[in-house]
Every structure is written in structure tokens, then in C-alpha cells.
Amino acid sequence: MGKLEYRLLKPDDTFVSIYHYQSIELEQILARRECEFFVKEGVTYKQTSSAVEDDIHIIYVKEHEHGPKEQAEDDNREITLEVRELNSLRGHPILFVSSFYTHLDVLSYIGTVYTYYNGWEWERDSAEIDEDRSVYSLYVTKTGVTYEGGRRNVKNKKMMAGVLTTALMTSLVACGSTDQARPAKPKDKSCDKWKWDEDTQTYYCSDSSSSHSGSYYHGGRYYGSKKQLTSSSAYKSFKSSSSYKSGIGSGSKGGFGG
Q1: Distance between CA atoms of 34 and 127, rounded to whole angstroms?
Q2: Are the C-beta atoms of 211 and 13 separated by less than 8 Å?
Q3: What are phi and psi of 32, to 5 degrees?
Q4: Which of 92, 119, 161, 218 has the fewest CB atoms in 10 Å of its CB?
């Protein structure tokens, strides 16, 4: 048995301990550490990093979103894993449900890159442990590759890629590439990966190993959420300047946890 502690990232970049597990199986610790998301008391937390201090395993998290607390459907001794399609517009529908006897079995499943279901190949996006409902969830997206008789068929994927490439080239010719107008990616040493947010016209850190993962970067500093960014005086000044690009593509958009 081991010890586990969840620590929450605060706005001032310090951490506070929020949950303790004084006696927990090592296999469950490892399964939890494999999950990018953790749900408890209606709050969804996103893992930013992990560590081991002496005999305590630590998972660092930041608040991702809030919602009503959901109850477990039954008191099943088996461990439930839901495999869901990553599709926020459809509420992340369940593809299938599996039951396991140990957390190690769950770990062996949620740690894989590809899953095969209903003749299709699905690629892992993220995993979640929901203590409120007492379930694990694995979020996947369809790759376009079919799987029949133990063989992967990439023909469909190639055909799909060709259609998408043609559509993309047509779009670029008609509208022009917007990448050329984007500013250079930030060079802050605490984050190695960046993604562009069209809504705010800024970059955010997509480096899961960084303590600033998910934070927006503007004017030489980080903002823990889009609300913090857009509420800042520096951003408001930027938005009212000629540097801010308005028009098509600058409106609000949906997405998972957006």
C-alpha cells in the first residue's frame, strides 16, 4: 500500500494539498497518474504533473471545470471503464463499457494508444477517473482506419486524407492562410509546446509536463484561464488596438472544456 496526495495549482503559482489517501494500492496510484482528468465533488481537475516525495506519490492538478456532483449508479465491486467518443457536441457518447477486477487491468487498457471497436480503429485522447460516479473513462477519436479479421485497413484513411487535403487547399486558395499573420510562438522556458487560440488571438501552453499547462500567455505573463486573460487590463488594451484581428474566425467557439 502507498500514500497519494492531490495538490492544486493556485493563481499565484503555489500549490495547496486538497485530497489525501493514506493507504491506497500502488496499482491504483499508477492508474490515477495515467489519467489526465480527475473528478471529485463535481469539480473536474486537469493533471499538470506528478512527483514522488519520500514515500508520498503526488499528482499536481488545476481546476478545469465545475458541474453538479453525480452519484454512482450502483455499488458494483468490479471496476468500470467507459470508452467514450471525444465529441462535445454529442455529449461524448459511450461506445462501450468494460468491467475489470483490478486497477492494474484498467491501467493496461487506458495506457494504450489505439482501441478497436465495431470494425474501426480509435486513438486515445485522454483518460479520466471520476470518483463521484466510481468509474474510469477513456476518450478516443476515430482514426479512419478499419479493422477486420485482425488486419488494419488504411485505404479508407488515405481516401479520407485525400478529401480533406483537397478541401483544405481549396479553402487556402479562397481565403488565404491565416498562419502567416500570427505572431511568433512565445519562447518562455517553462513551456515547450504552444497552441494558437483564434478566439483570443493569443497562444496557450499545451505542454502537459509544464505547471502552466492550459494557461494563456500574453504580454510576458501567464493567465490561468481564458476569463483571467480577457479580464486583464493588458488584454483589454490589446483587444482595442489595431494588433487585434477581428472578423471571421474571431468569435467564440465551443469545445471540450472550453
Answers
A1: 7
A2: yes
A3: -65, -40
A4: 119
C-alpha span between 99 and 120 (Å, rounded):
21
- The three-point CA angle 205-253-234 to 5° equals 55
Pairing of strands 79-85, 94-100: antiparallel
Spans of the chain below 70 pLDDT: 74-76, 150, 155-181, 241-258
Main-chain dihedrals φ then ψ at residue 31, nearest 5 degrees: -65, -40
> 142 vs 36, 156, 196, 258, CA distance in Å?
20, 12, 24, 21
- Which residues, including other chains, have CB under 8 Å from residue 94's CB and lie 6 or more apart? 82, 83, 84
pTM of full prediction above 0.85 = no
Q: Give residue 136's pLDDT.
A: 96
* pLDDT for the residue numbered 161: 58
Distance CA 251, CA 249 (A): 6
In 3D space, the residue among 40, 3, 47 whose CA is nearest the CA of residue 25 turns out to be: 3
Single out the residue of 108, 107, 127, 129 nearest to residue 21, CA to CA. Answer: 129
Confirm if 94 and 82 have CB atoms less than 8 A apart.
yes
Specify the DSSP class assigned to residue 4: E
